[in-house]
Request: fold
Amino acid sequence: MIAFDSVTVRAGATTLLHDITFSMEKGEKVVIGGPTGSGKSTILMTLLGAHVPAKGTIRFNGIPLSPATVGTIRKQVAYIAQEPVLGTGLVREGLLLPFSFKANRHRQPSVDQINATLSRLLLPPAILDRDIALISGGEKQRIAIARAL
Reply:
């Protein structure tokens, strides 16, 4: 479950979110809509701890978001931008980039896990040997989803 309770987020003198309250349950499908600049991405980035609320509380599965809990929450939530950044080079390198970081090295997926995830996302294993610059936007998004999974 995700719950925002009277959350306000500021960046300097600019208010990014003002008194936002909502909740969503596990398995519930929710659409966050609005015009450009209305705070859709800010809501998601705040849930991941990229913005600290000036007021209000955020809970993820009952755990209040704080500097001490943000790591636990980030292990369970992923944000995938509309135009994901995979880097340059081969798709394989972009897919495996997070596993080169110290915090994720012990989570390196096996070839079977990678292939199963690609299959679930309707991507052939051969895509791993293609240049990131040469795959479509939809393929980039599915690779970003695979990386998050």
Notes: The mean pLDDT is 92.
